[in-house]
Amino acid sequence: MQTDDRGYRRYWDEERETRDPRERERLILERIRHQLDYVYAELPFYKRHYDAQGFKPEHVSTLEDFTTKVPVITKKMLVADQAEHPPYGSYAGAADAAGIARIQGSSGTSGKPTFYCVSRTDWDRSADLAALTMWAMGARPSDIAQIGFPFSLFFGGWGVLQGLEKIGCAVFPVGIIPSERHLELMQHIGSTIFSGTPSYCQHLIGVAEQMNIDLRKLPVQRLIVGGEPGGSLPGIRDVITEAWGASVHDSGSTSEMYPFTTNVTANPEEGVLLINDEVFTEVVDRDDANTPIPLGERGAVVYTHLWRESQPMIRFWAGDETYMVYDGPTSCGRTYPRLPEGILGRLDDMLIIRGANIYPSAVEAVLRECPGMGAEFEIFIDRKDALDEMVVRAELTEAAARSTASNAEEREGLRREAEGRLARNLQIRIPVELLEPGTLPPTVFKARRVVDQRTAAPAPPA
Amino acid sequence: MQTDDRGYRRYWDEERETRDPRERERLILERIRHQLDYVYAELPFYKRHYDAQGFKPEHVSTLEDFTTKVPVITKKMLVADQAEHPPYGSYAGAADAAGIARIQGSSGTSGKPTFYCVSRTDWDRSADLAALTMWAMGARPSDIAQIGFPFSLFFGGWGVLQGLEKIGCAVFPVGIIPSERHLELMQHIGSTIFSGTPSYCQHLIGVAEQMNIDLRKLPVQRLIVGGEPGGSLPGIRDVITEAWGASVHDSGSTSEMYPFTTNVTANPEEGVLLINDEVFTEVVDRDDANTPIPLGERGAVVYTHLWRESQPMIRFWAGDETYMVYDGPTSCGRTYPRLPEGILGRLDDMLIIRGANIYPSAVEAVLRECPGMGAEFEIFIDRKDALDEMVVRAELTEAAARSTASNAEEREGLRREAEGRLARNLQIRIPVELLEPGTLPPTVFKARRVVDQRTAAPAPPA
After folding, report:
1. CB interface of B with A, residues 394-433, below 8 Å
2. How far is B167 from chain A (nearest CA, A)?
3. Which of A157, A306, B110, B349 has the fewest CB atoms inside 10 Å of its own CB, making it the most exposed?
4. CA of A132 to nearest chain B CA: how many angstroms apart?
5. Taking CB atoms and an 8 Å limit, are B151 and A153 in contact across chains?
6. Predicted pLDDT of residue B2
7. How confident is the model at residue B455 (pLDDT cuts 50, 70, 90)?
8. What is the DSSP letter of B173?
9. In chain B, what percentage of residues exceed pLDDT 70?
10. What is the pTM of this model?
């Protein structure tokens, strides 16, 4: 058995994680055919949808058939089905209470929340899968893992907790508390892992600075991030890595795809591994979900549960953009394909400004490489004389704000540097406005970066 | 095997729960001697304390020896020891990260929090014990359990979660959200169990009234309450039972005593059972912890972990008052002693007003039986001409406020009724002031009932 530098075995499930990809594809196809038969026979939601589209499970005999012939499902369809078949939809499967282990919900900011139910079998299997992925990120029984995700209606923190518990880490499930307290607890308890969103890890950099805490001297060695894009974008990841002196491990897909840690970072330089023998992941044409695209090209991600019996997602259109590569086993010896920069952003979040397509996460990745910029920024969009105008309003770091307080020229230099880098990377000129630290609301969970005045609701009729 | 009315077995562990009390006492004594030897040999905190008091484990050969000879430990001693031996104190035992399964903390409102660490062995054992107690309260795999305790640094919600998960309920761990949402979720998901503090369950009665929701028509059949006294005081329990049409199951001791659900209600009429083969519980003289008192008399509660290896509490003085009885097996067939009214209150919370000893929970129990009184009230204490004055300021229910809005006489009747009942029950005249509903801040977690102007901090010297 191979061991790591702490004397633990290298893999949670060596045979599975280092399997020959062709052999794995055979197993994946087997599970796909099983799942298609199951959902068509047992789950009315799928039966109706497939019948309406003229699709039958027997149309699939290869993975290519799967991509080109199986219609996708969308969040909108799930919401509509749950409204008709409350509370879990007609795609729920074992949805009597005795079969359900766990119920969670989405925030439902735009109306009713979506509800997730996980059967006992799926829940137990997910614990093992979450342990496999946390292990791939380097979590070991000797770690103390402080979790900064909320434990609530939302699914977020629960998956991380489940995996770390299964591994046997000392779990310290703190949730959302004042940032100063989080840092004090890391110091006092000696936490070796911290888990939260990438934007929160960035926010803590500024908080530590104000408290005169050197994050690099904290015992934290690994940051398990997720819940939003960014953790695999080099510009963002490098800033966090540097400030914390800790490796940044991106993970997670969407609540629908529980066990959602199947997107997981072992070696940050290589991006996110796709544990595709648990959740089969495709990247397809963003305008046609049945059109495959070549490896390396950007497209829309589509996920499939290979094992879930409760609310299984078969070709779920997540609305996220990414690109996938496979170029042999990664440095850790795992044979999974990967997303070199993780999830790039939500297709819906893409801003179209004067004809250019811009993701907020791309703006952020550039800003992270600009000297003097703090954790918080916003992308402010307005319409002026029928033209869309975008301004990036970025906070300075405490240090940069101090050192340029009486040196307007130096400050202007920082501003120009940021504008120059944005223009070079995004091929569009975006004005930058600098803000004092603390001007914008601090990020404590998922970041909200875009203020779009174009979509502000018109005044109601009098 | 005996089954209950839903076809499940009656007990989680029949042999243990129905054991002959004398046989159980023999086992308890065996464990006590084991624990005394262990803590004296392995945990410096106990060694120092026992040496200073001239106590040696071999002094104990009967349960009476245990009560009369073993010095108690207090919260203050634990806090001091943790300050000297951070983070878990010299009473922690297996406190390296690889041995710890779980870390939690107290709020530490008055300074540094206390930290709790639970070893893997203790954690796994606690899951089984929590399942035993949740089963005694009637939780079954077919239940949908909505949890309204927070999941955070504090230990509160985690014990309930662990027990319900082990049983195999459908767990819906929602935490603290707006009260209207909690009620909507119960309705939508069909939750059959709700868990929260008794004061929060009372608060929800008023919220439901405002929303025109009849709690009795909700699917909730059991309320698992704890975290504060009250759930076993008939006045409080009956109001909640009546309004919800659900049985009220008090449970829980203190964070130090994890697995803290060893105080548990099977049949609400009989009060709280003490699972004393897990946590041995004594009620002793409030002025001398080594003086036993007769069954049925009020005194101070002292707890002992019979199984914990990590941070075991041996004769922990919880600072709570109660009385214990044993009069044969309870109606459920269990052979444990019980606290007929649960924990009555904290010894420290006892108010001394003009010589009378008054617990806030006693005031509350009386108010719950007074017509027209809503969920929220406060006990306002001030010093007037060197005399302590207590006023109870109680909100009316929505209905009572409406129906007496233009009938001052009727409202005065309600006020007098409350004053009369308080005087009869507490042997002291306490003026009552009525408030409109919504005047006081709503209780969403533990209730804060006492506003003591006598203890307000004096202005700092200039």
Report:
1. none
2. 10
3. B110
4. 18
5. no
6. 75
7. low
8. E
9. 95
10. 0.85
**Structure token pair of residue A150:** 């909320």
B285-320 pLDDT, tens digit per residue, is 999 999 999 999 999 999 999 999 999 999 999 999
Of A103, A152, A177, the CB nearest to B189: A103
Give A6's contacts in chain B (Cβ within 8 Å).
none
User: Phi and psi (nearest 5°) for A212?
Assistant: 60, 35
Q: CB neighbours (10 Å) of residue A20?
A: 10
Pairwise CB contact (< 8 Å): B103 & A168: no
What is the side-by-side order of every strand in the sheet holding A387-396? A432-435, A387-396, A373-384, A450-452
Q: Is B340 on the interface with A (CB under 8 A)?
A: no
Which residue has tokens 């919504």?
Answer: B438
Q: Which segments of A144-188 are extended strands (E)?
A: 144-147, 170-173
Check if A267 contacts B (Cβ < 8 Å).
no
Q: How far is CA B8 from the centre of its chain?
A: 28
Q: Could you give the angle at which helices A198-210 and A179-189 cross, rounded to 10 degrees?
A: 80
For residue A344 the two structure tokens come to 């790039």
CB contact under 8 A, A153 and B175: yes
Give the ipTM of the model, two decimals please. 0.85
Q: In the prediction, which pLDDT does A138 show?
A: 97
Query: What is the C-alpha separation between A380 and A451, in angstroms, rounded?
Result: 5
Q: What is the pLDDT of residue A361?
A: 82
Per-residue pLDDT tens for A151-178? 999 998 999 999 999 999 999 999 988 8
Q: B170, A115: Cβ pair inside 8 Å?
A: no
| pLDDT tens digit sequence for A11-66 | 999 999 999 999 999 999 999 999 999 999 999 999 999 999 999 999 999 999 99
Residue B347 has pLDDT above 90, yes or no: no
DSSP B285: E
**Which residue is listed with tokens 């066990």?**
A259
Averaged confidence pLDDT in chain A: 91
Instruction: Note whether A151 contacts B152, CB cutoff 8 Å.
Output: yes
For CA atoms A99, A101, A106, A112, give the dihedral sign.
positive
- Considering only alpha carbons, which residue of chain B is nearest residue A140? B98
Q: What is the C-alpha to C-alpha distance for residues B282 and B303, in angstroms, rounded to an integer?
A: 6
A:116-155 residues touching chain B, CB 8 A cutoff: 117, 120, 141-144, 150-153
Q: Do B102 and A144 touch (CB under 8 A)?
A: no
Chain A: give the shortest CA distance to residue B94, in Å.
12
User: What is the model's pLDDT at position B375?
Assistant: 85
